[in-house]
Design a protein that fits this description.
Blueprint: H1 3-10, H2 17-27, H3 32-38, E1 44-59, E2 63-75, E3 91-102, E4 108-112
Antiparallel strand pairs: 1-2, 2-3, 3-4
């Protein structure tokens, strides 16, 4: 089991859970693909500064499932040439994700929730 995910699971129910979950998901590179898919404004997701907010949770003996609101940024990269008149700027993004963590293996699956779900 990924030690960071185990630490997050052990913190379930405490204030630091979402921050530890974020670190574990970033460590597994599990946030980039879903947030890239959910982007509405840019063309490349910037996930390192993502902020997670717990929206809903459900528990079973085998798994913990949480719905998260995720604030992050994206960019539309230019050519980055000297004198390029369109400097890159970060665009605000928001997505809702469902994360299911298997308690035995610590494996996390992340999927984008549709609007209104």
């Amino acid at each position: 089991m990924n030690p960071a995910m185990q630490t997050a699971l052990n913190a379930w129910g405490r204030a630091e859970f979402t921050e530890l979950l974020r670190d574990a998901l970033l460590g597994e590179d599990a946030l980039f693909a879903p947030l890239q898919k959910a982007m509405a404004h840019g063309s490349h997701a910037l996930v390192d500064q993502a902020v997670l907010m717990l929206l809903r949770s459900s528990e079973s003996p085998g798994a913990l499932e949480v719905d998260l609101g995720v604030g992050y940024a994206s960019i539309i990269p230019g050519c980055a040439c000297e004198g390029d008149p369109t400097p890159m700027s970060e665009l605000p993004e928001y997505a809702r994700l469902r994360v299911r963590i298997d308690r035995a293996s610590g494996e996390a699956t992340v999927r984008v929730l549709p609007d209104g779900a």
